[in-house]
Structures are given as structure tokens and as C-alpha cells.
Amino acid sequence: MKLKMPKAVATYMDATNSADLDSLDACLAPDAKISDVGENDRITGVAAIKEFIRDSREKFKLHAAIQNVDNVGEKVTVTTLTSGDFPSSPQYFHYEFTLVGGLIRNIDILPGEDNVKV
Predict the structure, then answer these.
(1) Hey, which residues does 92 pair with through a beta bridge?
(2) Which helix (H) or strand (E) holds 109?
(3) Bridge partner list, 71
(4) Residues β-bridged to residue 23
């Protein structure tokens, strides 16, 4: 399934699944932030975001399958069905991206209220 999304968002989502963390340099603003609501985490800066993704992949063996993309201006919401070594896997997550000048400035990761056992 090919869903239309800004290049920066596609690069970020690809990096989270492939562990090609160097590609994040081209899509994240220097002051980018992630708020992982489910884990009550706030991560700031490209280096810290790379470490967060690396650690999450190693700890949970995550794979995010994109289910839907909603583009509204510089706000993009990507819904994934994410599987891995964590309770209630697989689980829906909503990544709410804010872009500025084509780069990702902010990402809110929200567990889906629509989670069901698949």
C-alpha cells in the first residue's frame, strides 16, 4: 500500500523500520522534539531522537506498518499497526507530525484508542 505523505515523514517512517538512522539528518529540524505519550517521554534534538529510535528498536523489536495517512497543511497524522516485543502487540499508534519548512519539528506518538487484538 502506497500512501501519500511528505518526504520528511516518509523518510522518518522508513528509518524507524530499517534502522537507517543517518537518514534522519535530512528530515528532522535541529530542534526537533518527540513526545511519546504512552511512555511519558520527551526527547529533544536529532542525536537524542536517533538514540530513542535505536533503543526502542533494540528493546522492543518494533515494526510499524502504515495503515493510514492524513495530511492537513503542515500537520500529518500517520496511523500504524506496530508489532514487537511489548504488551498488547500489535497495537495501533498515531504519529502526529508538525512540519516547518519541509522538516519535522515535532512528533507526538499516541497509543490508539482503537486498539484491539488483531
Answers:
(1) 81
(2) strand 103-111
(3) 76
(4) none
> Among all chains, which residue has been given the C-alpha cell 515535532?
106
Kindly write down the DSSP assignment for every residue of 82-97, as one continuous string: EESSSTT-SEEEEEEE
51 HSE (CA, 13 A, CB side):
9
What pairing do the DSSP bridges indicate for beta strands 103-111 and 28-36?
A: parallel
What is the reported pTM? Answer: 0.90
Task: For residue 19, name the pLDDT band (cuts at 50, 70, 90).
Answer: confident
Per-residue pLDDT band for 118 (boundaries 50, 70, 90) equals very low
| Cα end-to-end span (Å), the chain | 19
> Which of helix, strand or coil describes residue 80?
strand
- Work out the number of other CB atoms within 10 angstroms of the CB of residue 17: 15
What tens digit of pLDDT does each residue of 37-77 get?
A: 888 889 999 999 999 999 988 999 999 999 999 998 889 99
Let me know: does 55 contact 64? Beta carbons within 8 Å. Answer: no
